[in-house]
Amino acid sequence: MTPRLTGIGRRRRGLISWSVLRNSMLPVGLVAGGFAVSAAMGSMRVEPTGVAASDANALAAAQTVDLLLVGGTVVDGTGAPGRRADVAIAGNRVVAVGENLPRGTARRVLDVSGQVVAPGFIDLHAHLEPLLQLSLMESALRQGVTLALGGPDGGSPLPLGPYLDSVRAVKPGINVAYLVGHNDVRRAVMNMDARAPSASELARMKQLVAEAMGQGAFGLSTGLLYLPGTYSNVEEVIALAQVASDSGGIYTSHLRKEGIGLLDGVGEALEIGRRARIPVVLTHHKAVGQQMWGRSTVTLAMVDSARRAGTDVMIDQYPYTATHTGIGVLVPSWAMAGGTAEFRKRLAVPALRDSIKAGIVFNILNDRGGGDLARVQFSRVAWDRTLEGKTLKDWAARRNMAPTPENGAELVLEAMLNGGGNAIYHVLDEGDVRRIMTHPYTMIASDGRLSQPGDGHPHPRAYGTFPRVLGRYVREQGLLSLEQAVHKMTQMPAQRLGLSDRGVLRAGAMADVVVFDARTVVDQSTFTEPHQYPKGIGTVIVNGVVAVENGTPTGARAGTVVTRPRP
């Protein structure tokens, strides 16, 4: 093989800098004396080029290459420096990655000069509830996502097996996998009871978790902020997490508290991981409310300490300063014990109603409310679609009410009595977002719900998570290198799931690929105009099938249900 001169990134050795990347995406301008020379590179090193022996053998063994991507800059997901290389695909597998692969064996050659070629992004936290209706999964697909993990925050289909059969039947646009949700397991056994389970109830819950794991679930998720999971104690969760651990699963935790009580919430998740001996993901990690801004320094130190002590804990994060959940998160959990009927009964008792309202006021001032009704923005309100996109402050003005926390609490109660709704809460700090993102064990995930234009007023993460990181935090701010960002979107989540053949571009890996223009890729979805697809992502390949071409979905549904590898 001939040696190749490649650039060294300006921030860290071996990583692409943007001044280098802009030039290296152009066709190679100089070839002399057996060396390929990339232009405009400040410092250089020599390394071999061409096709690795294993790739060459794989390519020779393939009777026909179905698709050959030529001329791109391969960022392979491992964190290694990007390099000029072609990618050959046969069936649903990558068969070779190397320079100047022969074109004569390819059924189709796609010139991706000037583009980055990377493994398809893996979304480790996705709300896939509308999947059977939105089977193309366009809001995820057009972000470059080729595998999404559903069942987060304690919510999942139950029983899982028949649901997965339904997903297979509709032929999803991308690959999907699932966790089993603690809230649904608990609800199936204990309804909305606010108490510890009996021995027989706990045994039944453990059985349901074991059944889901046997049907392919990747682990257990909890939403300890939500009903009815909030009524559980740590011993219950540990017992169920141990079942998932015995099957080689993971534990993803929506913390019990993310505002006041955040540190206790992190500590509880770490305790569950340690005692159940299960890999942990602190999912959509954040610090909610101004009182907690900056406390990510403490939570990340807790993660580092736990890892040193032997607990396998990682983080996922979405790159926004707003959360999204049901409006009921503002209501004290005790008020909802027993379900909606019991909630209505409590509101009919003046003293209890006053106590419930006081709890909502507290949460508006100190937690998801952010101390300002303008920070609570409705996203989905089935009983009054005109509220979607509007804030609690807007609603108060419509009613000629002063925008006080007390009046906000009255409106929250009205919303709950009408059936609830979902809202966006503008309560996070950019400094915490950046700090968490750069932690070495943080992965990128959307926490987004499958969406389509005209469907409510969703959080922009549903359309823009992955392009936003690439455009805003890599290209514009230089917070991460391109290789670091891609690693956090690909190999890291694949390894968390135990998938050795996804999340990387190498011979033998599944042919999940995204091709994007690093100079232009960016999210376009905003909090005021959310239904906007990103730009700069030209091609997405799912299991070897071109699902997006020239930025437009082809209509192909090449995804499959991915189940947990057997230990």
Report on this model:
The two termini are 39 Å apart. Strands 5, 6, 7, 8, 9, 24, 25, 26 and 27 form a 9-stranded mixed β-sheet that branches. Strands 14-15-16-17-18-22 form a 6-stranded parallel β-sheet. With 567 residues, it is an alpha/beta fold. Helix 5 crosses helix 6, helix 6 (199-214) packs parallel to helix 7 (234-246) and helix 12 packs across helix 13 (405-417). The longest helix has 17 residues, at 350-366. A hairpin with a 2-residue loop joins strand 26 (545-549) and strand 27. Mean pLDDT is 91; it is low at 1-51. The protein has 3 domains: 3-119, Urease, subunit C, domain 1, CATH 2.30.40.10; 121-321 and 442-506 and 546-553, TIM Barrel; 325-425, no CATH class.
List the helices and strands and how they pair.
Elements: E1 3-7, H1 18-24, E2 30-32, E3 35-37, E4 44-48, H2 53-61, E5 65-74, E6 83-90, E7 93-98, E8 106-111, E9 116-119, E10 121-123, E11 126-127, H3 138-141, E12 145-150, H4 160-170, E13 175-178, E14 180-181, H5 182-190, H6 199-214, E15 219-223, H7 234-246, E16 250-254, H8 262-276, E17 280-282, H9 296-308, E18 313-317, E19 323-326, H10 340-347, H11 350-366, E20 376-380, H12 392-398, H13 405-417, E21 422-425, H14 430-438, E22 442-444, E23 448-449, H15 461-476, H16 482-489, H17 491-496, E24 513-516, E25 537-542, E26 545-549, E27 552-553
Parallel strand pairs: 1-3, 5-8, 5-9, 10-12, 11-23, 12-13, 14-15, 15-16, 16-17, 17-18, 18-22
Antiparallel strand pairs: 1-4, 2-3, 5-6, 6-7, 9-24, 19-21, 20-21, 24-25, 25-26, 26-27
